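Researcher: I'd like a candidate sequence for this fold, 208 residues long. If you have to choose between options at a position, lean toward the conservative one.
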């Protein structure tokens, strides 16, 4: 693939377009990215790594579902989509509650109150924005009017790397707020803000 990129500038243009589309579309605020930021702010960087790992693995699973056409098969089952939306909304509301009520970092929240890897994975695979965003980016990268075209494995690899990078950046952004969260009043205000933002981005993802 490296040789093709060198010999065919069109592939470079497609690769750069894919990176830009992934950054803008997949990296924009949504239930998964905002939840990673909120968890990072509420629980700190180290205690948020497992949850973020679950989000990343779940989002990559969504990428594979979209790329292999499984999503098209699921779309043919009209009764399944509302169930996924309800399940996703219910968990996101629960997560928003946990974030809003998280104690200041100085209080050292108990292990059981920290979002788990499985929680992140489940949110990612039930996140309505993920399917729309990834499908849009993947379809855009797959449409080429003749000439050289990026192969599917290259697209999958690039998008998987972008998923890791995007969520790592959002996690670091949230963790940057953690130093302000050792004060009870500041902790409550920021946690409430992130919880409300998480709910809002979910509503926009579903109805926007």
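Model: Candidate sequence:
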């Amino acid at each position: 693939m490296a040789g093709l990129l060198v010999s065919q500038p069109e592939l470079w243009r497609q690769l750069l377009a894919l990176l830009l589309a992934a950054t803008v579309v997949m990296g924009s605020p949504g239930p998964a990215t905002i939840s990673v930021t909120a968890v990072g702010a509420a629980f700190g960087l180290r205690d948020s790594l497992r949850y973020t790992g679950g989000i990343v693995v779940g989002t990559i699973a969504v990428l594979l579902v979209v790329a292999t056409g499984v999503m098209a098969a699921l779309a043919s089952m009209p009764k399944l989509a509302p169930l996924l939306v309800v399940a996703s909304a219910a968990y996101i509301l629960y997560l928003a509650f946990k974030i809003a009520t998280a104690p200041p970092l100085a209080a050292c929240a108990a292990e059981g109150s920290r979002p788990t890897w499985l929680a992140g994975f489940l949110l990612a695979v039930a996140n309505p924005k993920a399917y729309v965003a990834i499908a849009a980016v993947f379809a855009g990268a797959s449409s080429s009017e003749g000439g050289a075209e990026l192969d599917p494995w290259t697209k999958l690899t690039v998008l998987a790397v972008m998923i890791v990078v995007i969520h790592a950046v959002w996690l670091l952004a949230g963790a940057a707020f953690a130093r302000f969260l050792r004060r009870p009043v500041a902790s409550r205000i920021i946690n409430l803000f992130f919880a409300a933002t998480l709910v809002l981005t979910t509503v926009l993802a579903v109805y926007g």
